[in-house]
Amino acid sequence: MIVVVCLNPALDVTHQLDAVGWGGVNRPRAVHARPGGKGLNVARTLHALGADVLVLGMAGGITGAGVEAELRELGVPAAFTPVSGETRRTFSVVDDSRVTAFHEPGPEVGAAEFAEFRAGYQKALAGAEAVVLSGSLPPGLPNGTYATLIQAAGVPVVLDTHGEALRRGAAAAPAIVKPNRAEIEALTGRSLTTPEELTVGAGELGGAGAAVVVTLGPEGLLAATGDGCWRARMPAAVAGNATGAGDAVTAALAHGIVVGRPWQERLRHAAALGAATAAAPVAGEFRQQDYRDALRAVAVEEVC
Amino acid sequence: MIVVVCLNPALDVTHQLDAVGWGGVNRPRAVHARPGGKGLNVARTLHALGADVLVLGMAGGITGAGVEAELRELGVPAAFTPVSGETRRTFSVVDDSRVTAFHEPGPEVGAAEFAEFRAGYQKALAGAEAVVLSGSLPPGLPNGTYATLIQAAGVPVVLDTHGEALRRGAAAAPAIVKPNRAEIEALTGRSLTTPEELTVGAGELGGAGAAVVVTLGPEGLLAATGDGCWRARMPAAVAGNATGAGDAVTAALAHGIVVGRPWQERLRHAAALGAATAAAPVAGEFRQQDYRDALRAVAVEEVC
To answer: What string of pLDDT tens digits covers the 304 residues of chain A?
Structure first.
């Protein structure tokens, strides 16, 4: 079983319009509400891959109940620790030319609430083969939260977050950290343009022993691991839903650990699933045919 | 008791930002979620006036549960018939210069669901002194729905809706219909600019016996009744929240019926409460001091 931790889930509401009348009243032609937050995208992707997955998170209020109801409907097993605050919404307005998003802040989480989550996490670890920690921390939780969860895991952990939570998490030696270029640049404090610069930056972030997989959008993936460095590329750049693509890469890396794929194959699958998900309109979803096609198209080369 | 019917309630979500980055990710500095839809604004205003009020409506899904929870928190008594569809959200983005709104469609209501609502309505009428029918009809209900509810009421009804539902409702002789200028122009099929033109238009709409009160925004109110015609004006135009102001006028008209105010006083209160509500940032709310000040400032003159 893969335990996916989503401490700051969201209800993602999307309105599709032909054109937005700013300053007026708009009537969307389609409305979608889906469980969101990076962790839930990862969990839905793993579920679609046929992996045995359990979501652990914290949820509150009517919006939290909405997230739980939507996950149930999708058949993704989940256990949320109740919090007194209200789970956040994200709201995206999609018109012909662009996406405008509005992200509410998450609820403030109290120490007693997190202690209750920790108890559930500890219990779930008994049946876990891998753990995914993904997304932002809600207000109230310290930057060292993911580091603590990594130290307690006892199984390989894949970490996808940003800022201090990422720096401190990486120092706790998870199996893999998965920053994007902006996130690793923010932590190293310098621009990382060439594969060489990226490999050096990844080596710094993974200094405590974590493999580092950097997502480079349409340019693919770069991995710096204890066993070597690889670059995975698609023959043609795939534009599309970047958030969903990053979360698909995280899911594929965790899946690759559990099914025992060697690094080169793990990266091939991660790049292919990322590309297939980028091509889908909704984060956490992909067409199986796109995934199969992309698997054949990905090239993985050793770069160090 | 005043029964307020809200067949198509909403959860009104408002995001406040300093400036919106269209095409990017925005993080609102304040988020508000409130029960919405015109009927619920009317009910909240009546509740703030100290009136004994009961909301009857139809609600479904997580958003419906959210509306019910928020109303409970506000202390407004309500009974919603459950529907299988999902209650709608409205989403408003407020920045320094303007408000951009996104209104989801309401849930499709089935005949059996409406029959259940009707049974509850019939029961509530036993204790009702007046009924307010306010807002749009959800998809699935015929345009004659309000007319049917008016014929069944047996007590004075105030109707605030638009289009065919308004035309057919007015023909069922409610005590008062409350269109705005655009709504009555749409029904008469001509532009109504002068008080004389408006009085004629109102007379046509009220031909079956309804008094007609037209809200004219900052220009106040015009009433054409069986007892005479009046115009109510504020000495200074009040800009602001037009939706909330119209709903406050509806609330004051129903309240005026129940407390036995003669027309002239009823209109003075309606105009004053509309002005006080227009000055408040949120529909359904007003400052008592603004209401008292406005009551002294309103001028009511007979115009026919």
So the answer is: 999 999 999 999 999 999 998 888 899 999 988 899 999 999 999 999 999 999 999 999 989 999 998 899 999 999 999 999 999 999 999 887 788 999 999 999 999 999 999 999 999 999 999 999 999 999 999 999 999 999 999 999 999 999 999 999 999 999 999 999 999 999 999 999 998 999 999 999 998 999 999 999 888 999 999 999 999 998 776 666 677 899 999 999 999 999 999 999 999 999 999 999 988 877 778 999 999 999 999 999 999 8
Q: Which residues contact B142 (CB under 8 A, 6 or more apart)?
A: none
CB neighbours of A259 closer than 8 A, spacing ≥ 6? none
ipTM reported for the complex, 2 dp: 0.81
Euclidean distance between CA atoms B169 and B206, whole angstroms = 10
| Cα A135–chain centre separation | 6
Smallest Cβ distance to B15: which of A25, A63, A102?
A102
Q: Which domains does chain A have, with CATH numbers?
A: 2-18+30-302 (3.40.1190.20)
Token digits for A51?
A: 């992996």
DSSP secondary structure of A17-69: -SS--TTSEE--SEEEEEEESHHHHHHHHHHHTT--EEEEEEE-HHHHHHHHH
Within 10 angstroms of residue A169's Cβ, the number of other Cβ atoms is 26
Q: What totals of helices (H) and strands (E) does chain A contain, helices first?
A: 10, 15
Option in B26, B91, B99 nearest A101 (CB): B26
pTM of the model: 0.82
Chain A residues whose beta carbon lies within 8 Å of the beta carbon of residue B10:
none
